[in-house]
Amino acid sequence: MRQLVILGASGSIGQSTLKVLRQNPGRWQVLALTAWRSLDAMVRDCLEFSPRFAVMVDETAARELASRLKAHGSQTRVLSGAKALCEVAAHPDAHSVMAAIVGAAGLAPTMAAVRAGKRILLANKEALVMSGAFFMEAVRDHGAELLPIDSEHNAIFQCLPEAIQRQPGFCDLAAAGISKILLTGSGGPFRYSDIDELASVTPAQAVAHPNWSMGAKISVDSATMFNKGLEYIEARWLFNAAPEQIQVVIHPQSVIHSMVQYKDGSVLAQLGNPDMCTPIAHALAYPDRISSGVEPLDFFSVGEFSFIRPDLDRYPCLALAMAACRQGQAATTALNAANEAAVAAFLAERIGFMDIARVNEAALQAFGQQGAGSLDDLIALDGAARARAHDLIEELSR
Ligand code: NDP
Ligand code: MG
């Protein structure tokens, strides 16, 4: 039986992964579950899935988890601290690693899994955005296998020729007859709102996504469409696509998860109900197909599809991410770091919704042109951009 590590098991993607495992009993064994500090979810899931290891980054939570599991006679070994994430991600017995920690915190353990040559089920797009070419080169050099979980990239992957699926990051899209990647997005909850009213949007309104149920950070990113910007950069690296080969298309129904346009006029699309269990099941079983538990798509209840060109005045964060993608690695790393700080401040009601773009733009201006010759340089740049963003947040929240 293949052994699976789930990084970020207590989150939205982690929980959907466990749902897919429940649909397919006896196919995977859970080697490790990890969380930052969500205790109740970890106690419950460790008792159900009996992983060999459970990691809590927070030490107090780890101690509590160990004592609660012991009281139930569980054999799971509880580890703590960020280093333990890397240890389980690179464990010799692990076959696949679900990389579903949110934000830059996911980079080190995901990289550890890459360097150990695992099958990486990549949900943590921020890690790839932050480290771009370094990440993709490590995948190639260590013989890791990269399967996208992000629904759009999973859709694109499914629409690519099989030869490209084997090493997508180093393909030549044009030579394969591909003219464009069409990256679809719903436009988020404010796609029809009055632009002047966006400044007063509350966190509760921003996280209420019309089609998808997700963690708080990515829900805010979807409302600003920064998420689509991250995905634009993610597609650039995952599929070796030039920025001009990627087009963002707003598709409010979220049924077409993305498309690939070929030079003969064909457009291939992957469709389905908006539920992350589909891409998770695809990547877990690839190249086989397994049940995901997702309801089959009923075209008669969908009725109609529509498509809108994104208005960059409504979505300044999308414009910034596309500009950063053209600028290069330092720009995307700095932008991602600033955005994480800005979204956390917005969720804590310290800054307004439209201030997120202000914080992001300032980071791009300050750090976009810096050199970044190594992964360590990028980690330092991430820290500097975060510090600068915190200063600006301080000013804006006065
Ligand atoms: P959640 O916020 O729901 O879950 C995040 C997970 O990461 C939790 O397990 C959390 O633990 C853990 N975590 C948070 N901070 C740290 C840290 N510093 N160190 C270690 N672990 C940490 O996020 P989502 O599941 O929504 O998203 C996860 C990733 O997947 C993101 O990168 C997102 O962009 C991507 N993604 C998500 C989609 C979705 O539908 N949700 C769709 C496509 C991509 P704890 O619970 O203890 O805080
Ligand atoms: Mg997505």
What does this structure look like?
Helix 6 (125-141) links the parallel strand 6 (119-122) and strand 7. 49% of the residues are buried. The protein starts with a strand and ends with a helix. The longest helix has 22 residues, at 375-396. The chain has 398 residues and is of the alpha/beta class. The strands form two sheets. It has a seven-stranded parallel beta sheet with strand order 4-3-2-1-5-6-7, sandwiched between helices. A four-stranded mixed beta sheet has the order 9-8-10-11, covered by helices on one side. Helix 16 (355-367) crosses helix 17 (375-396). The chain is built from 17 helices and eleven strands. NADPH dihydro-nicotinamide-adenine-dinucleotide phosphate binds next to helix 1, helix 6 and helix 10.
Characteristics:
398 residues; alpha/beta; 7-stranded parallel sheet; 4-stranded mixed sheet; binds magnesium ion
Short overview:
The strands form 2 sheets. A 7-stranded parallel beta sheet has the order 4-3-2-1-5-6-7, with helices on both faces. A 4-stranded mixed beta sheet has the order 9-8-10-11, with helices on one face.
Largest sheet: 7 strands, parallel
Provide mean pLDDT, rounded. 97
How widely separated are the two ends?
56 Å
Unique ligands: NADPH dihydro-nicotinamide-adenine-dinucleotide phosphate, magnesium ion
Query: Pairing-aware structural class of the strands and helices?
Result: alpha/beta
Number of distinct beta strands: 11
Strand order of the largest sheet: 4-3-2-1-5-6-7
Q: Beta-strand level of the residues, as a percent range? A: 5-15%
Helical stretch tally:
17
Rounded Rg: 20 Å
Low-confidence stretches: none
What's the helix-strand series? EHEHEHEHEHEHEHHEHHHEEEHHHHHH
Query: Into which percent range does the helicity of residues fall?
Result: 40-55%
User: What spatial form do the alpha-carbon principal axes imply?
Assistant: globular
Binding site for Mn(2+): 150, 152, 231
Organism: Aeromonas bivalvium
Pathway: Isoprenoid biosynthesis; isopentenyl diphosphate biosynthesis via DXP pathway; isopentenyl diphosphate from 1-deoxy-D-xylulose 5-phosphate: step 1/6
Protein name: 1-deoxy-D-xylulose 5-phosphate reductoisomerase
